[in-house]
Amino acid sequence: MKKTAVYPGSFDPVTNGHLDIIKRACAIFDTLTVAVLANRNKRPLFSVEERVEMLKKSLKGNKKVRVDSFDGLLTNYLRTKKATVIIRGLRAVSDLEYEFQMAHVNRLLYPKVETVFLMPSDNFVYLSATIVREASAMGGKLHQLVPSHVTEALRKKFKNLS
Ligand code: ADP
Known about the structure:
Layout: E1 4-9, H1 16-26, E2 31-37, H2 48-58, E3 65-70, H3 74-81, E4 85-89, H4 96-109, E5 114-118, H5 129-137, H6 148-161
Parallel strand pairs: 1-2, 2-3, 4-5
Bound molecules: adenosine-5'-diphosphate (ADP).
């Protein structure tokens, strides 16, 4: 039986940290669905469609990965996809508390679910999409931290916003 997993997140925008986690998940699972959350509370910089497109571009050629989007409860999404494994990335200790809360609630909502935490390579331990957005808004270019098409999309986005 094929082992399949879902990697949910905002991906606003996708960073090399996310891509590192995806690569590691692909080494363990047969298929991986990267699921973009259509955040209701946060006001994202990029639309869901833009975020999905950037992920697809970054993952072109990777046959194990699918990119999708969802709204509402992750556990409902998992049920519709018949998936029981959630992938999450763990950066420094700062992620731990929130991630444990989420994993706990998801297990209560869907007991079959298992959350698998993966650690990124050292270069990405302090990388977040928030920091990428903030640096880009002030004209900083983070070549080493996001794919080049994402740098370009950020540049365009902030040009249009200013
Ligand atoms: P962010 O916190 O960067 O806005 P997301 O909400 O898109 O990211 O996060 C989706 C998942 O990816 C979360 O489990 C998050 O901890 C993980 N993640 C994000 N950036 C990294 C990184 N640099 N290294 C490892 N995991 C990461």
